[in-house]
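User: Structure tokens for both sequences below?

Assistant:
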Amino acid sequence: MLRLESLALKRLEANELSLGVGIRLARTVDIAQIMKVSGFDWLFIDLEHSATTLDTAAQISMAALDAGITPIVRIPIGDYSVATRLLDAGAMGIIHPHVESADEARRIVDAICYPPYGHRGVSGTLTQFAYQSVNLSEAVTELNRATLIGVMLETPEAIAQADEIASIEGIDIVMIGTNDLAMSMGRPGDFGHKDVADAYQTVCDACKKHGKYAGSGGVYDVGLITKYVDMGVRFLLAGGEVGLMMAAGRQRTAALREIKTK
């Protein structure tokens, strides 16, 4: 029986935090190994808010497979051709931003999943199986199982549809895009506001009801993360490569500035 390993999915199935890191400006494949060694479970290769090309995202995805960290891609809104091409190139998950309804979620599943859940076409090569000759029926069944499909809810209107969205077969992750949600609520940057917290509770309750995983993006305060994890968040975008590099750089330069010259 064919079996694919996904560290991101393995963490989720074990009811552990599945930790991702945003990749927005990195352009070389060594970022996959660097982030795996740093302790992350998945890459969040962001094609919504970056100029990263399809080719670069594909190469990073392939490198991630070899490094043992799960490559997940956030696609531009409605760009299913990018999603399926990157899945053919090695990605093990797709995140679709700004989903507002169950109908949108159904369309995403239909475009990204192989039959019987969707209508995605089969490539002549299956990258995730290292280009080996495999039983096609087993392969597409395993790819349907192991490929994570996530939707981002980023408005109050989307949160109100969380239960219906989470009920769609084929959706694995319902993720709150906290920056855009707080902005749309008139609470920019106030990620601990009661309205935002209530939205997290709504999504977590919907995920528990329908056997899906609740996700969070944009929240980096450990105390606030703990609160949302207690509600049920398990799929956590823990930071981005630029922010992590700058934080480490500031910490290092601040320590060295304390050294007094003679």
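Moving on to the next sequence.
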Amino acid sequence: MKRDLIAYGTPFMDNLVHIDHLPTKKDEGARILQTSWQGGGKVSSALTAFGQLGGASSMLGVVGADSYGDFLLRDYARYDVDTSHMVRDGVNSFSLVLSDEVTHGRNIIGRPGTTRRYALEDIDEDFVRQHHVLHLENADPVSHRLAAIMRENGGIVCFDGDGYSDATQAMLPEIDVFIGSEFYYNKLFGESEEYEKNLSAVRARGPKVVVFTLGDKGSVVAWEDGWSFAPGFKVPVVDTLGAGDVYHGGYIFAMMQGKRPDECARFANAVAAIKCTGIGGRAGTPNLEMVEQFLETGTFDRSLIEEKTKLYANFGV
């Protein structure tokens, strides 16, 4: 299958525990309502969402040479993600993710892995050039080189601006589609709702398209022809983990189908909203039929989410 999308990032192993409330007092207990073992990571979850929608992609990075790494590679294959150029080393990063019924928020307790860093020498430039869209999550030397290869090849560079950094700001001239989080927006502009002015200021730094996700409010996008606010969708929220990540996968999928930036934002809002009705960054990700049904009717068939929820209930799928 033709693979036009390639991404570089850090894959995580997530143990998700959904509880009735988050204990805040010493020696306080809570009741577990649901558990799940799923892959995580910003571009990782974007790629698996892209694959669930029907796209094929490739992943670059380092995955653990352990049982977690085995799990993650099997999971990538489930979503048609080519991992032939990933490096295996050490123990994979792990996160315990607590979500609760009261706040619908999440608390993440992480353990860094022992994997080595993906290096410039690991890049197979000919392989990268076989793709036309690149998705990144940080501004390290590897990302700069990959962006240069993609632009030399006439391709598109997308970037997940989840958390603000000076390094990301400096990389804006190398990015074509910048999708930042609400946290990034607030770091730059505070509570200002002058979206047209503020997004234009980011576009002036280099990106052709600038998007900011605004949580359940939706997302805002600016491009050459103007700007647009795409309202969020109201759904019964189970877990918000990975919502921003799958938004990226949805946006890129719609973009690669030739949709306008405002249409991409609305489509991605729907993908992220549906995801929030399931636990983790994998179980709730919808297929294309579900998204199209949701956009047309406001409802969707939950059978795929229920199937994947059962699949991820036990480690070792």
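User: Anything stand out in the second?

Assistant: The mean pLDDT is 95.
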